[in-house]
Design goal:
5 helices, 462 residues, binds copper (II) ion, Immunoglobulin-like, binds CU-O-CU linkage, mainly beta
Length: 462
């Protein structure tokens, strides 16, 4: 395996733009990591699995003192984990119980027709509901869901609307990877928030046009969380669910871990890593092996810089499994046709962000494409006078591959299916993109305030 960091770096964010809140170590509080429940579906008469998701307002006791006013799905903060299998037909009743605001339910990374995708064209008014149906037509992966309302996405996510969607398939089940949910297969939703003196999230006060950030990490909604490790191998499904902050994860003793999956599925083989950067919207699955190095009572932490993200208290490990497969997946070769089909330029900062010199207009189609056609997209992050910043570039309704960064093949851990890619200032990233569904799909910066400020466009696939 190769040991290297992937392309993104977080000091770019801090660069010369107004600086973002510094993360603080929260040593006083400690709680067992909240594990979002797996939502139970019901099978209807035609064999479809039916779920119900309600976006609602709530209040959470994150810390001593007052409860924090929040939003969540089927609860007060974040949402349940949805587990689906490749080949299933799924129906989801989407209910908007928020007070007086529209929302949408977007399935980030899921390959579905655009009218099921929950983008900005599918708002649900407060008090209303709708039902979507789709066929699960992609391989095992860690995806997620969140709102996507024009101008309101960032605030609704900040207040708590987000959840994990796990896709399973036969290949993955046969590999013997850790899969005891909440025990050795753990969703890790990393977000940053600032609490006011009265324990509230004050989105307006903390708003930054280049992306709102907080000084306190919440992991699945827990401040300063820990877990008990009772198996040799622990699988973390990492999601950067933050509005703007980039994390570079490492282990407290600088030992290595193995990345097994990118946004849209398993890598061909595990990649040994010492540090892993994730920009907003990106996911990675990693496996930490505790067999040889640690004794009962040790504490190993997942870190971002010098801040603990998740403490792992190593206990007695009854499970002696130690069977990381060498081959995880059979990804198609990445095609590099030399022709570039589409050039996309990301530019500007704060309120001035644009894609190809335009702001999002829901009534304007920015590009047209053909279903089933492989294309090469070149995404260029145009530096500004201030040096620029990383833009996480996301495309709806597809999983793509990274061909190159400034002409150089991506790191081993970026060679899997991706739906979001960090584009560094002055960098040109080539992607191999194909849509298998028709309709109108968004592509945008996943710094949520940039998206809300218009750094978004749409392609019509016919
Ligand atoms: Cu995760 Cu268009 O969004
Ligand atoms: Cu951006």
């Amino acid at each position: 395996g190769r040991m290297r960091m992937n392309g993104s770096s977080n000091h770019m964010m801090e660069g010369m733009h107004d600086s973002i809140a510094k993360l603080e170590n929260k040593t006083g509080e400690q709680g067992y990591l909240n594990i979002p429940p797996i939502i139970k579906g019901e099978m209807n008469s035609s064999g479809d699995i039916v779920y119900s998701l309600t976006a609602e307002n709530g209040a959470v006791q994150f810390k001593d003192g007052e409860k924090t006013k929040t939003m969540g799905y089927n609860g007060s903060f974040l949402g349940p984990t949805i587990v689906v299998k490749k080949g299933q037909n799924i129906q989801i009743n989407l209910i908007n119980h928020l007070n007086n605001e529209q929302t949408t339910f977007h399935w980030h990374g899921l390959i579905v027709p655009s009218d099921m995708d929950g983008g900005p064209h599918s708002p649900i008014d407060a008090g209303k509901q709708t039902t979507i149906a789709f066929h699960v037509n992609q391989e095992a992966a860690t995806l997620w869901y969140h709102p996507h309302v024009i101008g309101k996405t960032a605030e609704q996510v900040y207040l708590g609307l987000a959840g994990i969607l796990i896709v399973k398939d036969e290949n993955e089940s046969k590999l013997g990877l850790p899969e005891k949910y909440g025990i050795d297969d753990i969703p890790v939703v990393v977000q940053d928030r600032t609490f006011t003196d009265t324990n509230q999230f004050d989105y307006e006060k903390d708003y930054r046009a280049d992306g709102t950030a907080g000084n306190t990490l919440l992991v699945n909604g827990t401040i300063n969380p820990y877990i008990d490790v009772t198996t040799n191998e622990v699988r973390l499904r990492l999601l950067n669910g933050s509005n703007a902050r980039i994390y570079t994860f490492s282990l407290s003793d600088n030992s290595t871990f193995k990345q097994i999956a990118t946004d849209g599925g398993l890598l061909n083989s595990p990649v040994e890593m010492q540090a892993l950067s994730l920009s907003p919207g990106e996911r990675a699955e990693v496996i930490i092996n505790t067999d040889k190095m640690y004794k009962n009572g040790d504490v190993l932490s997942l870190m971002t810089g010098d801040i603990a993200v998740l403490k792992m208290q190593i206990g007695e490990r009854k499970d002696t499994k130690n069977t990381m497969p060498i081959v995880l997946n059979q990804l198609p070769e990445i095609n590099d046709f030399s022709m570039i089909d589409r050039k996309i330029v990301l530019s500007g900062m704060a309120g001035m962000v644009e894609i190809n010199q335009e702001k999002f207009n829901e009534h304007r189609i920015d590009a047209y494409g053909t279903v089933g056609k492989r294309e090469i997209w070149e995404i260029y992050n145009q530096k500004d006078m201030m040096g620029g910043m990383v833009h996480p570039f996301h495309i709806h309704g597809t999983q793509f591959r990274i061909i190159s960064r400034n002409g150089i093949s991506p790191a081993a851990n970026e060679r899997g299916w991706k739906d979001t890619v960090a584009i560094n200032p002055d960098e040109r990233v080539k992607l191999e993109v194909m849509f298998i569904e028709k309709g109108i799909f968004m592509y945008h910066c996943h710094i949520l305030e940039h998206e809300d400020n218009g750094m978004m466009a749409q392609i019509k696939i016919e």
